[in-house]
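Thread: Modeling a multi-component assembly for a lab meeting

Hi all, long-time lurker, first post. My supervisor asked me to bring a structural picture of a complex we are working on to next week's group meeting, and I have zero experience with this. I have the sequence lines for every component (231 residues in total). Could someone generate the structure of the whole assembly? Inputs are pasted exactly as I received them:
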Amino acid sequence: GAVVSQHPSWVICKSGTSVKIECRSLDFQATTMFWYRQFPKQSLMLMATSNEGSKATYEQGVEKDKFLINHASLTLSTLTVTSAHPEDSSFYICSARDWGGVVETQYFGPGTRLLVL
Amino acid sequence: QQQVKQSPQSLIVQKGGIPIINCAYENTAFDYFPWYQQFPGKGPALLIAIRPDVSEKKEGRFTISFNKSAKQFSLHIMDSQPGDSATYFCAARGPNFGNEKLTFGTGTRLTIIP
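Re: Modeling a multi-component assembly
Sure thing. I ran the full set together rather than chain by chain. Output:
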């Protein structure tokens, strides 16, 4: 299957700083990428849908000014957690949709563990 | 309408047994039903997916059974191995026009004991 990478895999930062997470589709072009957040032993919570070249669509309750999403190319989307606080500590996972072939398939990255001290 | 209900929450099966995980949905517009496998600290990996025009799909040891009239689908793992121990998520998605987000179930933590 297609490969989605994320960088960094884990990050520890001080409260009040900003953190940028990159998501790349390595062997396909992704016009649509998704950002999820996952708490321990819970399901994935969609934060926003990102379309290349346009503004992201945020889910209800997700602060767009706090979680900045940029999808500048067909292979790269970034999530910036601005002025991070301990409650932002979580596992962030990106996903990209591959439109190759007949059926579109959504592939996930390996996730980024964020710990805000 | 957008919920996907998944059960059981956790499951312990002996090696070689056939764990079965069930999901039910309400939205009849859903037309794509994938299953994802997630190991601790990793992102979900697509396991197998089905569309409602077929009642069963097999890929290796994994089988999806789909009951359109009951709005239910399930994952069966044949000859289960300890390496299959993971959390499994079912999901559903509508057609591309305006309803294309994946809706996830709550997950099933599967443990295969030797």
